[in-house]
Amino acid sequence: MTTSAVQGFADVQAERKTLVIACNMIHDEVIHAMHAVGREYPIVWIEEGLHSSIKKLNGAVQEALDNADASGYECVLLSFGACGNMIEGLHTHNFDLIMPNTDDCVSIMLYPHRTAKQTGVFYITRGWLHSNKNAWNDWDHNAERYGEKKANRILSVMLSSYHSMTVVDTGAYPVSDIWTESVKRAETLNLKHGIESGSTLWLQQLFTGPWDENFLQFGRNETIHVDIFEGGA
Fold first, then answer.
1. What secondary structure letter does DSSP report for 230?
2. pLDDT tens, residue by residue, 4-57
3. Residue 233 domain-assigned?
4. What are 91-130's pLDDT values in tens digits?
5. Do 40 and 96 belong together in one domain?
6. Most exposed: 61, 219, 224, 233, by fewest CB within 10 Å?
7. CB 100 within 8 A of CB 218
């Protein structure tokens, strides 16, 4: 597609009544991407803690889709990956739905520097580190209930398949904001600590189009099934 054609598509898309539904875990990256491309779409934030229950996450996203239809939106941009197949059974209404064609949000943030997560690497961002629902909050609960020693053992078991903790630098905020805390967390778990380049480019393209093989597109009144998912990038 030529540069003028791409711009033309973006201009047309900008005129459509569009809603963004996004996971609050990637709040920083969504806002950064939207500012980068000059968009001001309304956003419905989905609570990050719902990832612990795919059924509840699916229900929350479907409720947002239902409300989008009631509000007359023509296009919904879903800022999620497949996230444990939470997209199964989602139903569009009188609008088009576009989402990244990938397994989860980490892959979105690593793009285009890496096409897949490395095995054994625990990727973190500011959104994850400061989330109300993450491994550290579980540690606080367990430490209060069982003591720090047992809480450390529980956390170590939970993260036993990881050898490294890596900060993803998406450019959405200064990495220095979380560097000291992330080093401390890695040391506590005896994990190697590092940093890897990421970006918000995948989200930027989601907000402007055109949408290529890195995206899944669903038409009006369509039910989504996971067998359409292939993984892009």
1. -
2. 555 555 555 667 899 999 999 999 999 999 999 999 999 999 987 776 678 899
3. no
4. 999 999 999 999 888 999 999 998 778 999 999 999 988 8
5. yes
6. 219
7. no
CATH code for position 79 = 3.40.50
For residue 220, what is the DSSP state?
T
CA distance 65 to 78: 10
Burial of 40 (0-12, 13-18, 19+ CB in 10 A): exposed
Task: Give the per-residue pLDDT at 232.
Answer: 45
Strands (E) in 50-179, as ranges, are 75-79, 96-100, 121-124, 164-169
Let me know if 48 is exposed, middle or buried by CB neighbors in 10 A (0-12, 13-18, 19+).
buried
Provide the domain limits for residue 12: 3-103+200-228
Q: Tokens 């560097």: give the residue.
A: 179
Between helix 201-208 and helix 27-36 the angle, nearest 10°, is 60
* Residue in 104, 136, 110 with CA at minimum distance from that of residue 196: 110
pTM, entire model = 0.86
Longest dimension (CA), the chain: 62
Q: Which residue has the tokens 């590092």?
A: 194
